[in-house]
Target: SEC14-like protein 2
Amino acid sequence: MDLLHRSVNVVDAEQFAIADPRESPKLRQLSTQKTSIPKILKPKKLIVELQAARMSTSLKLADDQRFALMKFRRSVQDVLQPHHDDHFLLRWLRARKWDPTAAEKMLRDSLNWRKHWDVDHLSDWDLPQSVKNYLPYGLCGFDKDGAPVIVIPFAGMDMYGMLHVVTQRDIVKVTVKILDHYLKLAREQSKKHGQIANQLTVIFDMEGFNLKQYIWRPAGELVLLLIQMYEANYPEILKTCFIINAPRVFAFAFSVAKKFLNEYTLSKIQIYKADPSKWQAAILKIIPKDQLPAHFGGTLCDPDGNPRLTSKICQGGKIPKEMYTNNTDKLNDDFTSVVVRKGGKLEFDISAPIKGSMLSWEFRSEGHDIKFGILKKDTTNGTQTEVIPIRKVASHQSDEIGVLTCEDPATYSIVFDNTYSLLRNKKLHYSVRILPPTKELQEMASIA
Model:
């Protein structure tokens, strides 16, 4: 019979832990009843199960949910740590729609992942301080429920530069380290303010966001990797997420990212365009002014009056090329390689048949620069208009990456011009794509 249906309370169980079972009147009495304690339960383990049972009754769960929680708890008892209470277990259960078997697999996979990345010892590891100075994030305070508030000035993340200084693995490690640090802080807050403080409130400031660097494959792939890692290993840690000052082009980026986010995460995200009157009101409903930088409508400032609170929130920035050490310029299978002859040019057309499509390009040249530009063709009269002026690009020093929103259906002419060089051929590797508009992009077309 289930422990929940036994007439045993925790006070009784505490006696079991300090007394010989044969000398305990309570135990002798229980042993004569049908609801006797199974011999396989040791006294201290019994206490744990009874405490867990009492806790599960206080969670206001439906009977089938309580049963799923009990089944899940017992199946993972061998790997649970002291802070893995029922609130922790419920995150995994809800993430797997109350299927205890699926939740067990998710949790065990995550614990194996933590071992693989040595997560519990990442406190002994860190990025060089010179690199950390370019990671845009920081804790500004706590929301009205006591949950930590993290601010991320996202446009300050130089993903291209970062991946030329450290590896993708390093960025994953530092992300995990930061998440675990804030989750430990949230657990401490929950001891004072209750479980409602055991999550994170996040503000992503997208002011100045440029999609260009995320069209670069290593950066785009890393962002998706981090999202997948987050969803697989940190279920339901997000209390609220404000994405503010979102430019129109952010709609495309989010339409890609949301495919990797689960329903719970999406339900916690609020997106606002560059309209402080709207997003400040929403933020101040949750975060007190004295816990929020003045830049976002609060009262916190640096001693020098800086409203962005840079003493606590790193703003990131462009990483100097002198710091570059890693060469991530590996050719992709879908790159086209050509030689543009001296005094010649490469020109080809690409069609964007749907309004709102995105024209993206990425290329590099070997050894020397080359001119690049994009022309828009008028099919009615055959004229061409420069939309990206043809100019000399130092694509031999770093990848040239860009994106263009096609306001109307049109044909574009891509130009790689080497007519100015009469002595050198130019070897070129390029990828040019038309990305069709998504439903989300069309719905958010009003974002400016």
The longest helix spans residues 168-193. The CA atoms of residues 15 and 24 lie 8 Å apart.
